[in-house]
From TrEMBL:
<keyword id="KW-0812">Transmembrane</keyword>
<feature type="transmembrane region" description="Helical">
    <location>
        <begin position="101"/>
        <end position="126"/>
    </location>
</feature>
<dbReference type="Pfam" id="PF12679">
    <property type="entry name" value="ABC2_membrane_2"/>
</dbReference>
<keyword id="KW-1133">Transmembrane helix</keyword>
<feature type="transmembrane region" description="Helical">
    <location>
        <begin position="231"/>
        <end position="249"/>
    </location>
</feature>
<keyword id="KW-0472">Membrane</keyword>
<feature type="transmembrane region" description="Helical">
    <location>
        <begin position="20"/>
        <end position="39"/>
    </location>
</feature>
<protein>
    <submittedName>
        <fullName>ABC transporter permease subunit</fullName>
    </submittedName>
</protein>
<feature type="transmembrane region" description="Helical">
    <location>
        <begin position="146"/>
        <end position="164"/>
    </location>
</feature>
<feature type="transmembrane region" description="Helical">
    <location>
        <begin position="176"/>
        <end position="197"/>
    </location>
</feature>
<feature type="transmembrane region" description="Helical">
    <location>
        <begin position="59"/>
        <end position="80"/>
    </location>
</feature>
Amino acid sequence: MMVAQLSSELRKLTTTWSWWAIGAAMVLCTTALVAVLLLSGLHLEQSPLDLSSVAGVKAVYSLGAGITYVFTLVAGIVVVTGEYQTGTMAQTLLANPDRRAVYLSKVLAAALSGLVFGAATLAASVGTTAALLATEGLSPHLGESAVAQGLGGTVATLTLWAVIGAGLGALVRNQLVAVVAVVVLSQAVEPMLRIALPGGAADYLPSSIADAASGGTVMSLAMGRSALEQGTALILMLALTAAVALVGAHRFRRYQVT
């Protein structure tokens, strides 16, 4: 039953244009931002990016976890709110009254979406970076263990953001409200808080935790490196994801079929 429900959720996702549009937009946006950052770093005399160092290159690779992660958040929201939006949630729950299985399948579908989008985005980021660095005779540092840890942390972080999005979608239900809220919070409110709050407090904002969990991003370089170690940050990111998913599960169980 669980396998059939998950398969159904994946079909719902991949047969709608919005899922493909979100993934394509994330890859294109990341590629464009990476290209701009690299060209600036390579040609500006006072660039903050040291592209000859492992840390500088790794920060560019992890750009998706620092900036474009909002796309995976939105993808997770769409997994749950899509059926509220179209009015098909009642039919889904009548066909399968086991709400735990329905919700879990949506969370797993969101996680798989985050994993796919994260891997595709990272491939675009790494490919663009390696190609542009090669034109300047610089190493992409892909054989470095620190870079490998950063790449793994970035994919894991983007996957978890999608699960958080699913939890938020179950909590808010209104797709437009949920999407607008996460865009405003992630792209405007949190960056301002990271600047305004003292270092110790700012390190525990969700975006700061995600930056540290991915091994450091361009946002870390711009706003100051987090004091959190990558392993600790990953544990905190998992705890945040579990908390949001559980709150979403409670809200999902209370949905009234009409």
